[in-house]
């Protein structure tokens, strides 16, 4: 007779699988912090990195002034803009608005970005700042204007580096789930052996709970992969 595996055991197993898939995804903390279960990638020091001097990068036609952490560049002359595009004739166009940041991607795979948009009359312009790890305070190293109303920048900064020794407050959710999994598995295994040995009078390999299931497990896994 098979011993029934507690539903809580399955629940913890499913929770571990789901948690492992989502634990490293960024959770946005305004104005520009990526928080995961293992570390925080905090870009807010950029707000004071150059005091009142905004970051800028130029192509052959426009100069772009921006700050990825909701600091309004004075040269944009609009407190609701956190980034703007200025032509040689000094026309100003917003490309990011205050409190409009959206963080996406995974810093560990190099696709971490901050996206923002600004609607100017009938045109919505969008800025995308890709953040990569570097040794410097902050340097914009690239610009891509495709499509024409989407402005993609690459920001290299030491604040974009994953902490080598992340500080945490105790165990993470994933660690707790793994511990619970092994505790439940140990209870299931030891309790099952004792039950089968002393109450069912089983001997040898038959004292392992649900032995037929464990024997068939490799073939079940193989069939799932087919």
UniProtKB/TrEMBL annotation:
Q: What Pfam families does the record tag this protein with?
A: ATG27 (PF09451)
Which InterPro entries does this chain map to?
Autophagy-rel_prot_27, Man6P_isomerase_rcpt-bd_dom_sf, MRH_dom
Q: Which domain of life is it from?
A: Eukaryota
GO biological-process terms attached to the record: autophagy; protein transport
Species, as recorded: Biomphalaria glabrata
From the Swiss-Prot or TrEMBL record, state where the protein is found.
Cytoplasmic vesicle membrane; Golgi apparatus membrane; Mitochondrion membrane; Preautophagosomal structure membrane
Q: Which Gene3D superfamilies match?
A: Mannose-6-phosphate receptor binding domain
Matching entries from PANTHER family are given as: MANNOSE 6-PHOSPHATE RECEPTOR-LIKE PROTEIN 1, MANNOSE-6-PHOSPHATE RECEPTOR FAMILY MEMBER
The entry assigns this protein to a family as follows: Belongs to the ATG27 family.
TM annotation in the entry:
171-196
Q: Mind telling me what this protein is named?
A: Autophagy-related protein 27
> In what residue span(s) does the MRH domain sit?
24-163
Membrane topology value: Single-pass type I membrane protein; Single-pass membrane protein
Q: Does the keyword S-adenosyl-L-methionine apply?
A: no
Per the record, its GO cellular-component terms are: endosome membrane; Golgi membrane; mitochondrial membrane; phagophore assembly site membrane; trans-Golgi network
Q: Which UniProt keywords apply?
A: Autophagy, Cytoplasmic vesicle, Disulfide bond, Golgi apparatus, Membrane, Mitochondrion, Protein transport, Signal, Transmembrane, Transmembrane helix, Transport
* Keyword ATP-binding assigned: no
**PROSITE patterns on file:** MRH
């Amino acid at each position: 007779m098979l011993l029934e595996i507690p539903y809580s055991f399955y629940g913890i197993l499913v929770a571990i699988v789901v948690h492992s898939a989502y634990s490293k995804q960024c959770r946005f903390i305004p104005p520009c912090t990526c928080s995961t279960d293992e570390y925080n990638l905090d870009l807010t020091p950029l707000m004071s990195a150059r005091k009142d001097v905004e970051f800028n990068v130029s192509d052959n036609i426009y100069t772009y002034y921006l700050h990825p952490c909701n600091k309004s560049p004075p040269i944009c002359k609009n407190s609701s803009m956190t980034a703007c595009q200025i032509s040689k004739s000094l026309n100003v166009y917003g490309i990011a608005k205050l409190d409009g940041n959206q963080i996406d991607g995974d810093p560990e795979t190099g696709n971490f970005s901050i996206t923002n948009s600004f609607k100017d009359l009938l045109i919505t312009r969008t800025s995308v700042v890709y953040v990569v790890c570097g040794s410097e305070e902050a340097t914009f190293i690239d610009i891509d204007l495709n499509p024409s109303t989407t402005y993609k920048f690459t920001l290299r900064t030491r604040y974009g580096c994953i902490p080598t020794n992340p500080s945490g407050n105790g165990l993470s959710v994933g660690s707790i789930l793994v511990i619970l999994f092994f505790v439940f598995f140990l209870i299931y295994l030891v309790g099952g052996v004792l039950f089968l040995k002393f109450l069912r009078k089983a001997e040898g390999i038959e004292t392992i709970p649900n032995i037929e299931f464990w024997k068939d497990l490799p073939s079940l896994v193989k069939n799932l992969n087919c």
